[in-house]
Amino acid sequence: MTKPGNFERHCLLPRTPFPASAESQKPRLKKAQEFPILEKQNWLIHLHYIRKDYEACKAVIKEQLQETQGLCEYAIYVQALILRLEGNIQESLELFQTCAVLSPQCADNLKQVARSLFLLGKHKAAIEVYNEAAKLNQKDWEICHNVGVCYIYLKQFSKAQDQLHNALHLNRHDLTYIMLGKIHLLEGDLDKAIEIYKKAVEFSPENTELLTTLGLLYLQAILAAGSMMQTHGDFDVALTKYRVVACAVPESPPLWNNIGMCFFGKKKYVAAISCLKRANYLAPFDWKILYNLGLVHLTMQQYASAFHFLSAAISLQPKMGELYMLLAVALTNLEDPENAKRAYAEAARLDKCQPLVNLNYAVLLYKQGEKEGALAQYQEMERSVRLLRDSGSLEFDSEMVEMAQKLGAALRVGDALVWTKPVKDAKSKHRTTSTGKAAGVQQPLGSNQALGQAMSSAAAHRKLPPGAGGTSQLTRPPSLPLEPEPAVEAHPAEASAPRREKQEEDDPGVGVSSVRM
């Protein structure tokens, strides 16, 4: 029998402890950390913004700013973005500046400030802010790109090219190639522009804008080559070039205008009118095409049609004196001397340094028996000739000189003629005339030699009155072949204006030049 004492002692002996379980050794999970009050609504603001639910986004922003007393940087930043999208550029600029104050080491805030300054047209200020942002992030290609765009607006193309090349060195991007190509187009360097766009296409062959622009530049180069050949009278070669362009761009108004003027140079007037009318159908508000149509109809002595097209050209280009002079020629042949005088007066008012306008006007006045007015216009012509001769910008046309000499003899001022400079022989020029002369030399629109070949109203269709010293022949007014269409706009944001060239097309008598697009 066991003793109670022994039993009690046995029961009270300490037991060996078991090892603790692994679960009991795991530390307790801490309570999730709460977001600071300044940032707790940022996720909701971002969600509404990317969904373009701007009204809901602005409501959350307003609530967040009230809770944070206007110190939530992200809410202010998104509010500035929304204001800029709504067109409130100045207000967005002020909010971005607030963000820059709250976080002065953030380059993104400075970039947004500079962007708003750029949109306000403050390009120099934008460049300064971009330079400050570049100090915080020297490897940001976007900063270099945007600085280059600002320099484009300031017309500092060399600095713009340097910045855009730096952007390409940091990170090649389609938009940077496009802006660099536009700089070369603004500088008139078509070859370099093509080279840049070729590199861009190699980098991004799937970009349709780059492919389209490069194709248009190639077509523009072909059209320009054809225009050069047309200028020197190589009409068949020019037509060969234009045929290549016509296969790719069959609805180009400048193309059909130039083709029409090639036929005009080959004296195929019906074909010329057909091509020019197609160009006019494609571009009804292009005054140069209307100018050329008026020229061809004047050459064919279809004065009513010439009046129609020249009037339409004047309505689109009312500040060009040469158009009024040609309109006066048509009116003279339509036996409307009063309106012809008004047209000549307007031409003389718009172009005060053009002796041919005064010569034509003087001849018309002489034929109408107004010798005093004719003498005044003749003296004005001599004044213009002296000015142009002194500046060295005038080559006298022999037919113009001959007409002036005849009129001077009729007005009894022949001894005071100012035609002392050696006259360039008209036969030495390549010209297109109704009597078989070849096509003309290119002159800038409104140049003195081009106007020196403009047709004289006195020589248009009848002889001078007895004592005028002789007769003159019908001549051709200026024709306007078009230059290639611009391929791109020039501006960072996108924009650019084409040059106009001119080609002479004249008849015996006093002829006029033609404009190319």
Automatic annotation (TrEMBL):
Q: What lineage, starting at the top, does this entry show? A: Eukaryota, Metazoa, Chordata, Craniata, Vertebrata
Entry keyword set: Cell membrane, Cell projection, Cilium, Cytoplasm, Cytoskeleton, Membrane, Repeat, TPR repeat
Q: Family membership, please give it.
A: Belongs to the BBS4 family.
Q: Organism, per UniProt?
A: Zalophus californianus (California sealion)
Superkingdom in the source lineage: Eukaryota
What InterPro entries does its record include? TPR-like_helical_dom_sf (IPR011990), TPR_rpt (IPR019734)
Name of this protein: BBSome complex member BBS4
Tell me which SUPFAM superfamilies the record gives.
HCP-like, TPR-like
Localisation: Cell projection, Cilium membrane; Cytoplasm, Cytoskeleton, Microtubule organizing center, Centrosome, Centriolar satellite
Q: Where is the composition biased (Low complexity)?
A: 485-496
Q: Which segments show compositional bias classed as Polar residues?
A: 444-456
